[in-house]
Structure formats: C-alpha cells, structure tokens
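During the reporting period the student researcher (J.K.) took over the structure-prediction task from the postdoctoral fellow and processed the backlog of single-chain submissions. One of the processed entries is reproduced below for the supervisory committee.
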Amino acid sequence: MGERQQTVSTLMNVYRTKEPIATIQTNQYHSAKELYEVQEAFIHEKRKEQGGSISGYKVSLTNTDFQKEMKTNTPLYGMILNQDIVATKTISLKEFFSPRVEAELVFITKEDISLVADINEIIEKSRIAPGIDLPDSRIQNWYVNISVPELIIDNALTGMVAIGEPQKIDNAFKLDEIGVTLFHNEKQISTGQSTFVLGNPLNAVKWLHEQLASEGKVIKKGTIISSGTFMQPLPLEIGTYRAVFDHFGEVTVEIVA
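J.K. obtained the following structure tokens:
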C-alpha cells in the first residue's frame, strides 16, 4: 500500500470506528500540491463509501493572526459534500468527533466564475447567505494543536454548515463592515466582524478562486463557498445556536444529543 493510500485508509477508519486519531503522519509529503492530492483522494474514498457529491469549498485559516500562529501566510481549503449541509437545521452531536461553532458568510455562485475573474465578477455572479459553520476534525484535541499539513489532509476541518437565505449585493456594498452576534439558547456568547476574514470575506473567495485556477479548476455555477469565520471558534454544545448578521439576517441550527 502506498503512502497516500495508507493515509486515506487511516482517515476512513476513523469514520468506521468513530474513534479519532492522535495525529496524521505528514513528513512523507513535501508540498502543498501533494497534501491536496491526499485530501482529494480522501474525499474520493469517502464519497465511494458513503455517497454524496461535492457541493463546494470551505476556506480555512482566513485570519492573519491564526496564520502567524500556524507559521504560514496563506489560507487553505477543503471540500464540502452535499451531506455536510444541514438541511433540517437540526443535527445530533453524535455526528461529530470534536466540533466547534463559528459564524461566517456563505457565497453561492449563480454562474460559472471565469479563470480570470476579479472581485467584481465574483460579486456579480454570487449570492451571499448567513452561515453557521461547524468545523470538525478526525484528530484528537485538534484545536490549536493541529499542523498545516494535517489541516489540509483533514479536509480543512470541514464538518457541517447551516445556510440561511442568500441575497444579491452590488459592487458598492461594503462587505468589510459586517458584524455578527452569536447566541446559544438565546444567550449572547460571541460577536465578530467581517474584517477578521483577511480584512474582507471577498479576499478569501478571491484567494480560493486563484488557488483553484492554479490547479486548472473553475468555480462552477451552484458552488457553495464557506468563506471564513468572523470569530474565534467555540466548542459545540447541545442547544440552539443563532447567528445574527448585519444586513444578511440570521441563521439557526439546533444541536441535539
């Protein structure tokens, strides 16, 4: 068995046993390209075993302070499968390994994004929705301990995402001036600002577009892009979470036992 397949098998075994692992061995991979190839192989194997289709992307590590802590200067991405989107707004805590909760904006493309797209094209061809992201990892005690290579292989901590009602905005709209308040059982637990996301969530989407373009991939019509958290991720607990955004409204997800 090759190194890549061994890594994929290790991750798939986590899903089969429901037992997270202490670490992912990454020393054998020497570039981001190799790490994303392992991620892609992992998603391919997961889809083969569990079904589902690729619905979009999660952009992670979108705060410059987080990047400094991780000794990197770039975000990274993972893939969102259709079963990762919370359709009923209710989900069991048993579906996760070690989840957290964050609030962020979600972009939904209404047309293909061209390889040479600028920010204006991205805005023109997208709708934006309020979102509650529930990042998760197959690695024990991952928060603040996980490495960048592990993050990439572990699909950028993709867990699940709840998405509210999307809206159209124009090019003059100030996406760098959006605030959010997060409630748990109607008690305020956190606030955040869109500037936490590379100064503007559009910068995260633009980075994703450029990264995928460098790999010869195009963002297609109907792609969902979870653009990056407005706040420090908090541990996910049983109860009802509600994220209320400036301009974009709110989204709710209920976590049950």
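The committee noted the following: Helices lie at 3-17, 32-50, 64-69, 119-124, 148-153, 201-214.
J.K. will present the remaining backlog at the next meeting.
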